[in-house]
Structures are given as structure tokens and as C-alpha cells.
Amino acid sequence: MDFTPQPVTRNVRPVGPVGVILREPFRAETWLRLAYLLLALPVGLLSVPLALVGGPAGRIQRGLARRLLGVQVDEPERTGPLAFVHAVISTPLNFVAAVFSGFFLFAVAINIGYPLRPENDTSDSWGGPTMAGAWAVHAAGGVLFLLVAPWVMKGFAVLQTRLVRGFLGADRTGFLRTTRLPLTVAAVCGLLAVLLALPMIHQA
Fold it and tell me: How far apart are CA 6 and CA 40, in angstroms?
């Protein structure tokens, strides 16, 4: 008889789409991705003069993507001017990614923490006139932003990864194919931000 202990197998129940959506805001990868979206802009801007003087701009940007996004990019023999080109071309996308990520975080905090707002007048507020009703409506909006934000950030991170691989890796793809979609998304997001800001400016 064979008395060799057999490995214990556990029945792992697959997580459905609803479970994935509910868990995404609380995964470590989501917060690492957020850190990258917020750091990519200042690191990219600092890499512009660093690349001009022959500094390790490409290595720094690859390292940031590797540590926070888990992107493994083979280091080329020499990056040359492509580190400078990447730092410049990625700036519009890095900017809108940081702005939109910050907006979503602000929307989550300001809606879930609605009772903490100074000079709260719930008489004309959504869910008013009671504080309980207004808080319930705004908290629901905050939770919605919390669930949507990780997927927006994931989309930006995919585009930023595309630029890192295309400019800073050993296997470089065509520049037009690499930059067309990220720059298009950056332009559309910038236009959307302007259109949303105009009514606020007129009301001020």
C-alpha cells in the first residue's frame, strides 16, 4: 500500500465579474498603479533635462514602470535620444492620467465624506433636505467613483506601458503605431476636461 501523503486540493471558487469589480479598488496592484500614474509626470519631466545631458533617463523610467506596474522591459544596449523623445511624447498622457486619477480620488473623498464639507446646506442638495438623505445619495456617488476609478487607471497604465515598451525597450515597434493611440487618448481627455471646466468657469 502507498502511504505517501497526497497534496490537499482546495476547491477555489472562481470570482465572478461582480466580485472582480468590488475587489479591484482594494488590490495592492491598483494602488501601485495609482502611484505610477501620479509619479510618471514629475519623473518624465525630470527625465527631459537628464536625457539631454546623457543621464540615465531611460533606466529611471524603465525602473519606475517595473517596480510599480510590473512591466519587464529588456534594456537596450543604448537608449540614446529615445529616452528624451519618450519623456517628451509621454508628457501629455502622463498629465491627463494624473489629473483624471486625482479627480477620481477627490470625487470619492468629497462624496463619501459629505457631512465633513464646510458650510453644508442640504436644503437644495441631492437627497436633501435631511443630512441623512443627502449623505446617502452622495456616498452612493462616491462608491460608484471608487469602483470605476481602477478601470480608468488601468486603461491609462496600459497606454503608458505601450510607450515604455516602444521607446525604451530592446524590441522597439514603429513610432507611429506606438504613439498614435496614447496621444489620441490624451487629446480626447484634454478636450473633455476643458469642456467640463467651462461651465464651472462661467459660474464662478
Answer: 48
Q: How much is the CA Rg of the chain, to the nearest whole Å? A: 22
Please write the tens of the pLDDT for every residue from 54-84. 888 888 888 899 999 888 877 776 666 788 8
Cell, residue 37: 500614474
3-state secondary structure string, the chain?
A: CCCCCCCCCCCCCCCCHHHHHHHHHHCHHHHHHHHHHHHHHHHHHHHHHHHHCCCCHHHHHHHHHHHHHCCCCCCCCCCCCHHHHHHHHHHHHHHHHHHHHHHHHHHHHHHHCHHHCCCCCCCCCCCCCCHHHHHHHHHHHHHHHHHHHHHHHHHHHHHHHHHHHHHHCCCCCCHHHHHHHHHHHHHHHHHHHHHHHHHHHHHC
Threshold 0.90, pTM exceeds: no
Reading the block at residue 117, the C-alpha cell is: 464639507
> Does the N-terminal peptide bond of residue 182 adopt cis geometry, omega within 30 degrees of 0?
no
CA angle 189, 73, 66 (to 5 degrees): 70
Burial 45-73 (b: 16+ CB within 10 A, else e): bebeebbeeeeebbebbbebbeebbebeb
